[in-house]
UniProtKB/TrEMBL annotation:
A GO-annotated cellular component: cytosol
Chief location category: cytoplasm
SMART domains per record: EFP, Elong-fact-P_C
Domain of life: Bacteria
Family the UniProt entry places it in: Belongs to the elongation factor P family.
InterPro entries reported in the protein's UniProt record: Elong-fact-P_C (IPR015365), NA-bd_OB-fold (IPR012340), Rib_uL2_dom2 (IPR014722), Transl_elong_fac_P/YeiP (IPR020599), Transl_elong_KOW-like (IPR013185), Transl_elong_P/YeiP_cen (IPR001059), Transl_elong_P/YeiP_CS (IPR013852), Transl_elongation_fac_P (IPR011768)
Protein name: Elongation factor P
NCBIfam families noted in UniProt: efp, PRK00529.1
GO MF annotations, alphabetized: translation elongation factor activity
One record GO biological process: peptide biosynthetic process
Domain Elongation factor P C-terminal span(s) in chain numbering: 130-185
Occurrences of domain Translation elongation factor P/YeiP central (ranges): 68-122
Organism encoding this protein: Microvirga aerophila
Keywords: Cytoplasm, Elongation factor, Protein biosynthesis
Amino acid sequence: MKVIASTLRKGNVVDMDGRLYVVLTAQNIHPGKGTPVTQLDMRRISDGVKVSERYRTTEQVERAFVEDREYTFLYEDGEGFHFMNPETYEQVAVPLDIIGDQKAYLQEGMPVMLSVHNGLPIAIELPARVTLEITETEPVVKGQTASSSYKPAMLSNGLRTLVPPHIQAGTRVVIMTEDGSYVERAKD
């Protein structure tokens, strides 16, 4: 659907020449003399290229309809990553290039938010925290204080993180999916 350029906000998805862009910043500029303009900084969803565009505030821009729905992760195979809509039981396969580095945190049965455009998934948002097990870490060094130093540890998903000295192999910990940092010991 076409909308006036001045109504676009951060997070909106626009369709330019058949390609989808997500708006990073939208700024309306009213010079003292001349036509007011809308400055848009956008990122192309397909490959991450950043683009800057300037429109007259009254110009029409094609806004893409994107639906955010909750899906449950099922499994990964040669086709990609398979998710199921918990209400309709409809399954969708998401290619690796959309998942990216986040694939290490995907766990069977994990609820995720998928952004869908014309029936095709274009983006994924994982939960902020996941619980993983420490597979290996260095032994505790006597006299090391708990607050000041962290030691490297290997997680069950193959990634490395830093944990406090009292954490040992076999301990379940909560990790931030955004940057892979240690939050706390798991309560379960």
